[in-house]
Amino acid sequence: MSLKQAINNFEARVGVIGLGYVGLPLAVTTALRGYPVTGFDIDQSKMDQLNAGKSYIGAVSDDELVQVIGDNRFDWTTDFAGLSGCSVIIICVPTPLTRQREPDLTFVKNTAREIAAHISPGTLVVLESTTYPGTTDEVLAPILESSGLVLGKDIFVGFSPEREDPGNKCYNTKSIPKIVAGSGEVAGELVETFYSNVVDQVVRVSTTQTAEAVKITENIFRAVNIALVNELKLVYDEMGVDVWEVIDGAATKPFGFMPFYPGPGLGGHCIPIDPFYLTWKAREYDVPTRFIELAGEINTNMPHHVIDRLRAIVDRACGKGLSASHILLVGVAYKKNVADMRESPSMKLMQLLDEAGARVSYIDPHVPEIPPMRHYSQYTARQAIDLAELERHRFDAVLVATDHDAVDYAALLDLECPVVDTRNVFARLGLSMTNVIKV
Predict the structure, then answer these.
(1) Could you tell me the end-to-end alpha-carbon distance of the chain, in angstroms, rounded to an integer?
(2) Contact, 90 vs 15, CB < 8 A?
(3) Handedness of CA 419, 378, 300, 258 (dihedral sign)
(4) What is d(CA 329, CA 350) in angstroms, rounded to the nearest whole number?
(5) Given a cut of 80, is residue 50 above it in pLDDT?
(6) pLDDT tens digits along 73-105
(7) Where are the alpha helices (DSSP H) in 319-408?
(8) Domain ranges in the chain?
């Protein structure tokens, strides 16, 4: 039986490497569609939670997990030797930046080496990790060929960028249109065939470089537009103009405008990171990327701007500096109504406050304890204070960084101290603005 037949007959075992925010939803969705799936991850704690039938990703419910386990469609392991039995292998590992803001493909390269050590002839390998155009053909494919198998004959390579949006109730892995491409015509057909059996809509593009560029363009578009409104906010603040009201007014135009909103910085795995993958790659071609780099500079500076404003507010209201202040940080997840901590600007805010000598407490209904992170390891296991006991504490100011719906914002006003709102949540809810300062 050919690989394409095995895929169409749902007899191809699918290996998903990396069971995080992208990999676990994809693995479960693929299993729900009828494929046998094996998930691979180096994190034993994830294995332990899966063994207990517990999902650690909001996009996957415990019921869905139990269903695919009960149907014997999904299993998981830390032993990569199991890749030898997989006909389709999908890579969903992180692609972070180094401290110097250069691409760090360590996880992709290490994963490719594991695959090369165990891959069988007649296997399709698809990279989903966001990266710069050329990675699939220039980095992944040569490592896979070190197995001795021939690209386009024994093994087939493709790219299909992930488009997960944590907390989005309208779209999920199955319903989000999927960009796909392969290295060569046969690989492209195989990638298209597989994903057509898993998701509702597949959009095939000509090359893996194009598919990689699609994803990175989507995220640069958001990063640049967020930087624009962040800069507009700084300008309009000086003029005494409410940028939130300006954006709401502009959004009434039925064409030619798309609303983006300012904030205390960028979070999530994509937008703060991906633009720098392209700026790095562009240097290879001697092409300047001033617009993208300027956007990154503006967004990166927003936490510093917020703390500068907070410092002035505390000094004016309390007559003391941050070093003598107790600050309540509201929300440490990077996005409302999720527990996702990846690249959260709240961590930078917390660090800046600590460096200023402030005492910092936080509340977050989705993050009762700060998990281990690639950066900010000093905050691992720090716990949120009890929402029901806020009045027992004396705060000099409240800083709203993430506007979770489950927070009682009226109770924050009862603390009778300045409230610095970076998300316009109090105005949106129609609450008193007496002690609220939009920043």
Answers:
(1) 62
(2) yes
(3) negative
(4) 8
(5) yes
(6) 999 999 999 999 999 999 999 999 988 889 999
(7) 345-355
(8) 3-206, 225-235+262-438
Are the CB atoms for 153 and 184 separated by under 8 Å?
Answer: no
Q: pLDDT tens for residues 330-388? A: 999 999 999 999 999 999 999 999 999 999 999 999 999 999 988 899 999 999 998 88
One-letter amino acid identity for 208? Answer: T
Measured at the CA of 99, the angle between CA 95 and CA 102, to 5 degrees, comes to 50
Q: Which two tokens stand for residue 310?
A: 């907070």
pLDDT band at 169 (very low <50, low <70, confident <90, very high): confident
pLDDT at 166: 85
Helical H segments across 82-170, by residue range: 106-118, 135, 141-145
Instruction: Identify whether 417 is a catalytic site residue.
Output: no
DSSP 8-state code for residue 380: T
Distance, in Å, from the CA atom of 221 to the CA atom of 199, rounded to the nearest integer, reads 25
Strand order in the sheet with 74-77: 74-77, 37-40, 14-17, 88-91, 123-127, 155-159, 178-182, 202-204
Domain covering 3-206 in this structure, CATH number: 3.40.50.720
For residue 235, the Cα-to-chain-centroid distance in whole angstroms is 29
Tokens, residue 327? 């600050």
pLDDT tens profile 222-236: 999 999 999 999 999
CATH class of the domain comprising 225-235+262-438: alpha beta
Q: What would the two tokens of residue 233 be?
A: 């906010």
| Topology agreement, domain 3-206 and domain 225-235+262-438 | yes
d(CA 70, CA 395): 50
Q: CA-to-CA distance for 91 and 108, rounded, in angstroms?
A: 8
Query: Residue 388: what pLDDT?
Result: 80
Helix (H) or strand (E) segment spanning residue 411: helix 409-413
Look up residue 200 and give its two tokens: 């509702």
**Angle at the Cα of 287 from the Cα atoms of 286 and 288, rounded to 5 degrees:** 115
Show the 3-state SS of 170-212.
CCCCCCCCEEEEECCHHHHHHHHHHHHCCCCCEEECCCHHHHH
Amino acid in position 355: E
- Rounded to whole angstroms, the Cα distance separating 160 from 88 reads 13
In three-state secondary structure terms, 360 is strand
Rounded distance between C-alpha atoms, residue 53 and residue 71, angstroms: 13
Residue 126, Cβ density class (10 Å: 0-12 exposed, 13-18 middle, ≥19 buried): buried
Active-site residue, from 86, 92, 170, 270: 270
Taking each helix axis from N to C terminus, what angle separates 274-283 and 290-318, rounded to the nearest 10 degrees? Answer: 140
